[in-house]
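Bumping with the actual sequence this time:
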Amino acid sequence: MRDYAPRSPSHALVWDIWLRHRTLARMLIAISVFAFLLNAALPESFRMLKNDPNTFGVHGAVRVANFLLMLTALLLFLAICGQTEMNPQTGTRGFPYRLFTLPLTSFHLVALPVFLGMAAFEVLCFVWQSFILHEDVHAWGLIVIATYIVLHQTILWTLPALGSLRVLVLGIIGIVFTVAFGLPTFPQEALPWWLRENFLTVWLAAIAFCSFIASWTYVARQRSGGGSGRHWITLVVDRVSAVLPRHTAPFTSASAAHFWFEWRSSGFLLPLLVGATLIVVIGPVSWFMRNDGGNTMRILAATLAMPMALALPVGKALSKPQWWSNEMSMPSFVAVKPLTNADFVVTKMKVAALSAAISWLLVGVFISVWLGLWANLDTFNYLRTLAWIFYGRSVYPQYGLAILLLVTSFLLTWRFLVSSLWLGLSGSKMLFSTTALPYGFALVFVVAFGVILPRNEESVLGWMYNGFGVVLPTLVKIAAVMVAAKFWIAAWSWRDAERMYVQRYLALWLGCTSAWVAFGLLLWDGILQVVPSDSHQLRSLIVLFSLLAFPFARIGLAPESLARNRHRA
């Protein structure tokens, strides 16, 4: 690239932003152009069919493709707006320190990236809505996401001491803004005055203004030698820790001491996220929709799925030697502890079990209070009546199904927390990062399917109802091959393990798998009334998937992966 001489300090700042993010910007432009060509190539009649809620097939595939491309463009845009850089002196990522040498005021250093981010986003939304999706531009959506962009930049710039925890904070705030995005579609009479559209606009403007002031103040303080800002966070953490119960008695063993260390380091993370989501998102939504019986079941399903969905990314972080660090190598002060590699793995598994148990205790308390006090149980009672009929007019299978549902959900949450231990403890950053990609794509496809399904309820569910029996024999064969491969890999991975650990985990695996099989067979006994397929093959499929549900082979690989990483420490 030829040399470029900026005409002013402001041009130099803009040029620096372009040089640092030009690869992501080009990818964003390429995705937008591809989406435009994809939709422009469709004939006009096809576009009309594409908006018909009674069609699926290729039309639904185009909608899914548009949604995935738009979501990818949004994620790339947020990565560009981040404008962060590693500070070699403090080892944290925040506002680029090298930009402090530019002959610009702190106001300009902050205002210019913020203004560019908001302006570029408005242009991007206008292009996508008008020329790609051929839809009307809604001002409310632009305001919500523009406010989130400002808040996104503020969190990345002003909270460097939080490290990787900033991603989780942004995720929680993103959930809140997603709910706010859909609030104008709710009946305004059912919402309190301070959550109606006019007042929400004032709230968003205030949040954006306060976020900008916080960023400006922080950068000005940093630029004048005010420190990294870590000390006030440390002070708050120290004061909170001072009032919390402390472990003053001596630990009974090295394993107990390491358990306390792992819990204080990362074990609390999942219960914290689950509790925050229940209080900030699900609780208010359940109150606003308390008169709608249909939404009661949707909220119940979302509440039950939430711990398992959060356990996926938390499990990836928990599997690392230090979840807050970008380094995959094992710290020396941990590697020298008088513990075997199997002890390290067992301790992480115990921490994951306690984390999942507390999370599901919070969910259970919320569901009990919500269903008992303000939930509309019309649809819930109707489904209970159907289950009562399907199970021979007996209520005991319902109680058994509810108990086994909670047990298997807890086990599945624990599975997501520990299934990546062999990857995180291996010390390979490339392998760990590569295997994390499917989680993001899986979440995107789940969200896309959730968006498409309500618009094509009859056609999609009809296909599942009529076509399941055709693909059932193939699914049984695939599941049988997967079970055989799992046991073969498990036998190989546990070949050098101590007999004590093998016997204990085998007993645990048999007990948990039995719970999965019991839940599957009880569920199979009820759904025989509605699924037109071979009952014996369906039962075999459920049993085979129950054998795959609980991890076995990957747990056996974890100590060996840790051994290689530990020797490098």
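The tokens above came from a reply further down the thread. The beta strands are 85-87, 92-94.
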